[in-house]
Amino acid sequence: MARTAEVVRETKETQIRVELDLDGSGRSEISTGIGFFDHMLESFARHGGIDLKVDTKGDLHIDMHHTVEDTGIVLGQAVLKALDGFKGIRRFGHAYIPMDETLTRCAIDLSNRPYLIWKVAFARPKVGDMDTELFKEFHHAFAMNAGACVHLETLYGDNTHHIAESGFKALARALRTAVELDPKTHGHAPSTKGVL
Fold it and tell me: What are the distances in angstroms from CA 54 to CA 40, 49, 72, 97, 108?
């Protein structure tokens, strides 16, 4: 059974198309108009083992907020759609990602009870041209729309690039484990409720 999805969202602020395959090999085609964000989404696809296409056209003449947040919304919706009721998955995943002086931890529960715990601080307001405050907006939008409980924490680190990138990689690796098919679930949602 293919675990793929395509989601299109068009508003006055953004036009976004996301295609993904949860059982891919990490290939990506990313275009958001924001160089560093493209790099983060490419890293997310590679380390998540997800084939991912993202085509975002946003109102960058205003700022990057709508582009980043709305891309998180559509990516989350695509993951949720591809999971098809969370049937047969491991559900939980976690990862620790070191990048030089930085260490970031992510734990995820694909529970259909979305939540974000964000314990990440940046020393600088920008990395490249991107506002660092937008990273929380992206992760929040993703978690809310993927039905994911995400706890993301940078345990220590100084370099803004490393902190941001280790967060995306940690989320990707935790998600990669959580979406794996678990034969012990016998194709059911992994919950005593029988449904998530």
Answer: 12, 15, 11, 24, 23
CB atoms within 10 A of CB 15: 14
Joined together, the tokens standing for residue 48 give 């998540």
Burial of 17 from C-beta contacts in 10 A (0-12 / 13-18 / 19+)? middle
pLDDT, tens only, 67-113: 999 999 999 999 999 999 999 999 999 999 999 999 999 999 999 99
Instruction: Please check whether residue 30 is in contact with residue 43, taking contact to mean a CB–CB distance below 8 angstroms.
Output: no
Identify the H or E element spanning 178. helix 160-178
Of 61, 2, 56, the closest CA to residue 31 belongs to 56
For residues 85 and 64, give the distance between their C-alpha atoms in angstroms, rounded to a whole number. Answer: 32
Q: Which two tokens stand for residue 44?
A: 């997310």
pLDDT in tens, 23-34: 999 999 999 999
3-class secondary structure, 22:
coil
| Other CB atoms within 10 A of residue 193 CB | 7
- Domains assigned to the chain: 4-185 (3.30.230.40)
